[in-house]
Design brief:
With about 240 residues, the protein is mainly beta. The protein is about 15% helix and about 45% strand.
Length: about 240
């Protein structure tokens, strides 16, 4: 549609060379933005994990942790039940202490406004289970996180600032059809944050703790062994 409108605009003009040149530049910019939005659609291009990376942390990802202690060991594992085919997922495999947050960050990501989504499967954990998304990640001590915990049956949104976690919103007593397999989605525009669990609106807040763009990543706590699949990043230009 953008291409057709631009060509019609050029064909119908009878102006000087400078006006035509400026119009052409505007058309090319419009078509580039349209192409960017289509390519960034998380439903069309989710990030997948490959058999070639089985048993290791895939290229383009970095493991990190908030807090002290052993943990945050991430690797690609096989899972035939994974919603993303061919059945390979990124899994946090370590059993860390209670106050440790396990992080795995997409190195080349840069997110300010837009939509995020990921499929999560809670595998094990006595202290904690489940997990979710981190975004506007500046470093291992500064970011937003939204997660679901099947043990506590709650869905929460936090900031982690200077290594300290602060709750922004919570929804309690959530019973899911598949208690340990779920989707976490986030929409963040400006200071407004909306969080969904399995496609249902659960949390909405306004917060300005982190107003600058940051990376996108995955999050679990303590001994939560959790796999992630179908990570979608739809970042609006900034």
């Amino acid at each position: 549609m953008a291409r057709t409108n631009c060509l019609n605009s050029l064909n119908n003009r009878d102006d000087n060379f400078i006006t035509v040149e400026l119009t052409m530049r505007s058309c090319l910019l419009a078509m580039t933005l349209v192409s960017f939005v289509v390519a960034a659609d998380p439903k069309a291009h989710p990030i997948a994990f490959d058999k070639a990376d089985l048993g290791k942390l895939p290229a383009g990802w970095s493991a990190a942790k908030t807090g002290e202690g052993e943990g945050s060991v991430w690797k690609v594992t096989a899972d035939d039940s994974a919603p993303g085919k061919p059945g390979h997922v990124l899994t946090q495999t370590a059993a860390g202490p209670n106050r440790l947050y396990n992080l795995c960050v997409r190195d080349e990501s840069s997110f300010l406004d837009g939509d995020l989504t990921v499929r999560v499967k809670a595998i094990a954990g006595e202290i904690d289970q489940g997990g979710g998304l981190v975004w506007r990640y500046l470093d291992a001590n500064n970011y937003y996180v939204c997660r679901y915990n099947p043990l506590e049956k709650n869905f929460r949104l936090y900031t982690v600032k200077q290594g300290k976690r602060k709750e922004l919103a919570s929804k309690e007593k959530i019973e899911l059809k598949k208690a340990k397999e779920f989707a976490v989605s986030v929409k963040h525009i400006g200071s407004k944050i909306v969080c969904e669990l399995d496609g249902e609106h659960k949390l909405e807040v306004t917060d300005e703790t982190f107003p600058k763009p940051g990376k996108v990543g995955l999050w679990t706590k303590a001994d939560a062994v959790t796999s992630f699949d179908k990570l979608g990043i739809h970042s609006k230009p900034f």
